[in-house]
Amino acid sequence: MKNLPPLALIAALAVAACTAPASTEAAPADTASLDASGAQPATPLADAPFTVQEVARFDEPWAMTFVPGTRAALITEKSGKLKLWQETGPVQDVAGVPSVAYGGQGGFGDVIVAPDFAATGTIYLSWAEAGSDGTFGAVVGRGKLVQGLAPRVEGLEVIWKQDPKVPGRGHYSHRLAFSPDGKYLFIGSGERQKFDPAQDMKANLGKVLRLNPDGSIPADNPFASEGGITAQIWSLGHRNILGLAFDGTGKLWNQEMGPKGGDEVNLVEAKANYGYPIVSNGDHYDGKDIPDHVTRPEFAAPKLWWNPAVSPAGLAFYNGDLYPGWKNSLLMGALSGEGLVRMAIDGDRLHKSDRWDFGQRIREVEVRDDGSVWLLTDGEDGKLVKLVPKK
Ligand SMILES: [Ca+2]
Ligand SMILES: [Ca+2]
């Protein structure tokens, strides 16, 4: 190419750019300043490549997952119900679910299916439970989903608990994800609005934990040799994790709510310390400064951050073809940001590619096996909506 005259070179580069496959598509140059700042303006929904179709309503829906091999989805309601939504049938209550400590930010949490769901019917649930003396903590359990006229969970067993239980009903996180190889359960565990536990290696608060599917501790965990609670820890220094998702190359991403500003998306790596509450690109709600990430390079910095806050909720990896240019993206709901954020994955980097203004708090993002994206809006009259591609 170096012997080509300049005009021919430009033409050749232009042709190369136009024919590059979508999966290796470089981020638009105009996201660079957004990526390096807290900003990301929202675009009106009218300009999005989809329309929003309401499908059903739920009472404070919190999380959902599609049931493999069906057109149905499991949806948790924060006050303690598990619902089975069916595309061509009624919404059913699922029996056999635990009683939950409903209040504040707590109640029913996440629901996911086990990697061996087709053979075993195993699902995983998280919820808040009360301890003694006015304390609370999240727990994770697994059981078998039995479908039919009276769907139920059988044999529910608790396999993990937040330790210690503490007073207050905030920052449970209790988000769940299985590694793509199906071998490990990852749990996002919030710092329960107590700050310092995120750096305390004797607590599993403010951490991402890595467990075997039965709740036992993998021998190759980064702190396995230290035993006890510490052995569960995969990464530390997290605040309130409300989304965990693996991408197509097996990388684990999380989002977490910052304090006043400083919402983060992180690439979650073994042994890494994400710095909370020592550093944050946000600050305390009372205005007290928290030094920004740049002041302490020994802590893993977020790949992207938002200031003012968008209040992330839900995180999903998208690799489908239904919406142009979305392949190899992360999709994140926003509560106070009232919308949907799309981030293009570029190796170890992310780009702020889209943000649509829904005018409604988005609690959960999910992708069905046909490539369609579904959202739950937040609140007592929460909606299940489908994003229908524009023709
Ligand atoms: Ca989900
Ligand atoms: Ca700060």
List the ions, cofactors and other small molecules found in this model.
calcium ion
- One letter per element, helices H and strands E, the order comes to HHEEEEEEEHEEEEEEEEEEEEEEEEEEE
What is the structural class? mainly beta
Report the C-alpha radius of gyration, rounded: 21 Å
Level-1 CATH class name: Mainly Beta
Number of domains: 1
* Portion of residues within helices: under 10%
Overall pLDDT score: 93
How many helices? The count is 3
Total beta strand runs: 26
Corresponding CATH superfamily: TolB, C-terminal domain
Please report which band the strand proportion falls in: under 5%, 5-15%, 15-25%, 25-35%, 35-45% or over 45%. Answer: 35-45%
Main sheet strand line-up:
1-23-22-21-20
What distance separates the N and C termini? Answer: 40 Å
Would you give the CATH topology?
A: Neuraminidase
Tell me, briefly, the overall form.
globular
* Unreliable segments of 5+ consecutive residues: 1-25
Largest sheet: 5 strands, mixed
Assign the CATH architecture: 6 Propeller
Fold and architecture overview:
With 391 residues, the chain is mainly beta. The protein has one domain (58-389): TolB, C-terminal domain (Neuraminidase, 6 Propeller), CATH 2.120.10.30. Helix content is 6%, strand content 41%. The chain contains 3 helices and 26 strands. The chain has helices at 6-19, 32-35, 117-120; strands at residues 43-44, 50-58, 61-66, 72-77, 81-86, 92-93, 108-113, 122-130, 135-146, 152-161, 166-167, 175-178, 185-189, 207-211, 233-236, 240-246, 252-257, 263-268, 304-306, 312-318, 329-334, 339-346, 349-357, 362-367, 373-377, 382-389. The strands form 6 sheets. It has a 5-stranded mixed β-sheet with strand order 1-23-22-21-20. Strands 7, 8, 9, 10 and 11 form a 5-stranded antiparallel β-sheet that branches. It is globular and about 60 Å long. Mean pLDDT is 93; it is low at 1-25. Residues 63-65, 364, 366 line the site of one calcium ion.
